[in-house]
């Protein structure tokens, strides 16, 4: 990442961190964009350069590009699901304790505010498309192949279940939960 990208990522993280703090202190609905901007020491117009809405500050993350890069670096002999599992687990295993705490807090907030749950679904639809395109490219299948969509949808379903569980059990090991859930999917979901 170049200097400009690092600066943007740092500003985005500062906005999100201040927003989460204000949501904890004042409540989601009572917190305004202006309050978030003031706490992050930016103007409201700068806030809107990073986030389209107040909902977006909770829902948006920068994990899709990291997932793509990690997926594309997986060995060619792996199945698409094995490559996705390795990419997702390696990405989460490298998260700091602070990043994991933020993920847990964001998930709890998303689950408690109806408009955020709806926004999360929209965000996950975008991630579903990213996974679909990654798998299609790796396998040589068409992106509109129903089997490719089914695999991507199953991965998103696993991700949602892990997010929900982790929101309620922040003491759990997120990377381990994700790895175990994807392993179950890979094994055909035995119970």
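Q: What amino acid sequence fits the structure above?
A:
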């Amino acid at each position: 990442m170049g200097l400009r990208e690092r600066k943007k990522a740092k500003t985005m993280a500062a906005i999100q961190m201040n927003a989460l703090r204000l949501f904890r202190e004042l409540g989601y609905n009572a917190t305004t964009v202006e309050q978030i901007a003031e706490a992050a020491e930016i103007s409201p117009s700068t806030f809107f350069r990073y986030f389209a809405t107040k909902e977006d500050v909770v829902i948006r993350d920068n994990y899709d590009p990291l997932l793509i890069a990690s997926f594309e670096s997986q060995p060619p002999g792996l199945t698409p699901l094995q490559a996705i599992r390795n990419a997702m687990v390696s990405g989460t295993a490298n998260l700091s304790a602070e990043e994991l705490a933020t993920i847990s807090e964001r998930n709890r907030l998303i689950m408690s505010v109806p408009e955020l749950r709806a926004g999360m679904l929209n965000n996950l639809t975008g991630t579903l498309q990213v996974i679909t395109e990654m798998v299609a490219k790796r396998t040589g299948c068409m992106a509109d192949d129903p089997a490719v969509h089914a695999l991507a949808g199953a991965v998103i379903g696993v991700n949602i279940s892990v997010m929900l569980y982790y929101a309620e059990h922040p003491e759990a090991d997120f990377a381990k939960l994700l790895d175990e859930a994807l392993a179950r999917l890979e094994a055909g979901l035995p119970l």
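Q: And what stands out in the fold?
A: The two ends are 42 Å apart (CA to CA).
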